[in-house]
Amino acid sequence: MTLMSAARRLVDAARISAAAPGPVARPVRRLTPAVLLLGLLVFGAALTEYARVVQAHPGRLWSPIDLHVYYWGGTTARHSHDVYDLDYHLGRLGLPFTYTPFALGVFKALSHLDEHSLQWLVACGSISALVASTWVAWGLAGYRRGLGRLGAALTVAGLALWTEPIQQNLSFGQVNVFLMLVVLVDFAQPHRWWSKGVGIGLAAGFKLVPAIFIVHLLVTGRLRAAAVATGTLVATVVGGFVLLPQEAHRYWIDGLFADSSRVGGINYVGNQSLQGVLARTLGLDARGVEPYWLAAVLLAAAIAIPLAARAYRRGEELLGIAATALLGLLASPISWSHHWVWIAVFLTAGGYLLHSRRAPWWAWLTALAVYLLWFAWPIVAHADRGPHAVRLPAGLLWTVPYDNNAENGWTGLQLVVGNLYPLLGVLLLASLGVLLWIQGRGAEPRAPEVTPRRPTSAG
Q1: C-alpha distances in angstroms, 363 versus 126, 155, 354?
Q2: Assigned domain for 407 exists
């Protein structure tokens, strides 16, 4: 099957999904207020320990390189039109500004703050956004507002805080948690609201990968929201040309947006995407791996998009969003490990499935084992090994050899550990497929036992 015919089949599948019946009403679920105590304990302990470790190693865990690049880009844009042609120099390392002109405009405005204040604002804001994201995610799963839902949100946020993606995001001063929150809040809006889709469009205008959620809106038949999201995305592009015309021309017209080489080496261990897996496993460069990557992306899309649409039709909005987020992470040319902040949504989805289905003890243990694969363990990263090495929170993927193309020499268990997140992503997609298949074989979903009130925002 050629790539063209595969793409045509994918489009046909999307049309079928869009024409399918509307979603089943989602039951209104409750959590006992006693869960709040668990949430306060878990989140309080996680945040306290995180603050202690950061304070003990500020040079390694409180040195936001990416935030420095954002700040430098915004400051440079106030005085020059050459942001995309310059590099932020950190020693001998040159880091280019890779975000959209719309994002550059945001950072240009933020650059009026002093950098230290901005660092604190982003760090505290990211942790707050993490809690808010889990709160909204539990709402998307059908849980009513209350102390129990707050406890569940704090519990998941505390667990997520000690995963490698979240800690990397905080360490680098990244913006991924904010974008995740914007997308989740958008999905939580009632369908009748005209603004549904604006958040997704803004997130996609800031960083292109969230545009995958516009596809999800299309295949689930929410055409007005998809149109609003697309229009918002276009507005961010047009706004870039109005406010930063030379930078916008350089980014969009000259094709910088499609040049993934500016972001970093695709075979670097931190790139936890399908392209990264294939480049490391096959020992290929960006050009050589491209046909294999495109085929893998089409296959992943052919699986994930119908799964997400089916989940939505069965009233499982959160599961559909999680599947779409997984597709975006797998399909993107570069998905650094700190882009996998969607682990917070995956953890919420897992907690929802375990709680709502009264899962047996072995299912909880299995979920715990999967969670620990994302955990930020106190380890010595491979590049730091030496007589004066210090144990710092890091993911298992940093224990394998990396840098200087060492990734191309991985064998056996190293291939599993070094490609851990994409492998877990594929596993999660397969698990969702099995779950929906089992549900499909059973009785058709019934209306909820508790009649929900008029739809309201899950946020």
Answers
A1: 31, 18, 7
A2: yes
In a domain, 446, yes or no: no
- Give how many domains the chain has, as a whole number: 1
Element (H, E) at 108: helix 101-110
Each residue's pLDDT tens digit, 283-340? 888 889 999 999 999 999 999 999 999 999 999 999 999 999 999 999 999 999 999 9
**333 CB-contact burial (10 Å; exposed 0-12 / middle 13-18 / buried 19+):** buried
Q: Which pair of structure tokens corresponds to residue 212?
A: 């995958």
Q: What is the pTM of this model?
A: 0.90
Which residues make Cβ contacts (< 8 Å) with residue 92, sequence separation at least 6? none
Is 424 within the bounds of a domain? yes
**Residue 456 placed within a domain:** no
Average pLDDT over residues 344-371: 95
d(CA 239, CA 231): 12
Residue-range definition of the domain harbouring residue 153: 3-22+32-441
Check residue 455 and give its pLDDT: 42
> How many helices (H) and strands (E) in the chain?
20, 4
Maximum distance among all Cα pairs of the chain, rounded to whole angstroms: 64
Give the model's pLDDT for residue 265: 86
Q: Is 358 left (phi over 0), alpha (psi -120 to 50) or beta?
A: left
pLDDT tens-digit series, residues 147-169: 999 999 999 999 999 999 999 99
